[in-house]
Structure formats: C-alpha cells, structure tokens
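Protein Record: Sequence and Backbone Structure Tokens
======================================================
Tokens: labelled as protein backbone structure tokens, with as many entries as the chain has residues.
Task: work out the structure tokens from the sequence, keeping to the layout shown below.
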Amino acid sequence: MAKRGEGAILQVGARSINPSGKGAEGRVMSSMRVLVVEDDSIVRRLCADVLDTEGYEVWEAERGEEALSLAEGLPFDLALLDYHLPGADGVQVFQHLRRRFPNIVGILMSADLPERLAQEVNRWGLSGFLPKPFDLEELVSLVSKALRRV
C-alpha cells in the first residue's frame, strides 16, 4: 500500500507504443483534450508525454484545485486522475468536472485498494480504473477505449 509521500511505481517498457502520433484505429486524436491530475510529478509527466505522443492534447495539474481552475477556460474530453490528491480525492475532482462538462470521461488511478476501487468506478460515474503500477500500454489502451465511447 502506498503512503502519502511515497512515490508510485510505473512499469516502463523500452519499445515505442505508437511513434506515428495517431490514436486508436489510426486516426489522429489531436481534437481530444485530456487532463492529467496527479501529484507525483514523475507519474504525471510520463502519462502526459505518452498521451501527447498518441496525439492527444494534454494538460497537467498537480492538485485538484489546479485542475478545476484549468477547466474554467478549457473543455476536457477525458480526465485521468490519481485517487489521492492534496486537498481532495480524484473522485471529488471528477465530480466537479462532470458538473461543468457532462460528457467528460474519467479514469481513476491508484496504488492502494485497487479491487475495492475498481468495483466503485461505475457508481462514481467514472469510465475506468488503472491500478498502479501499470504499464504504458495499459494507459494508452484504457484512454483509447474510454474515448471511443464519447
């Protein structure tokens, strides 16, 4: 179980996921705007870089308040949120985003209690759950599948 102040672990492979810059089924995904909300700067940056490589327009926030501030001026298609954020949990932040953007898709990430959280995502209005540690292919696949439902 991860504790506040301890980093999360990501499994990173050496091969390129999608060097073409195209998203699912070969179409460019640049019109899809993704918000990555994660207080661990390494995890946040890595997720953002991978999704940017996939062709998504990616914005980053370290805290829930920062995410909500960004959302005042930008419509987002998907929010990728850590469960444990300073000041508010990822579910609370997503629920605020959902009130602003009713069609936004949410994916929750967490290193602790993944089985319990995975069972709660639908009740919370989220589209998916990504247990940490995860590999980058899992991230890309889950984001792509969630956005196809939009």
Q: What stands out?
A: The helical segments are 41-53, 64-71, 90-100, 114-120, 136-148. The two ends are 33 Å apart (CA to CA). Confidence is low (pLDDT under 50) at residues 1-29.
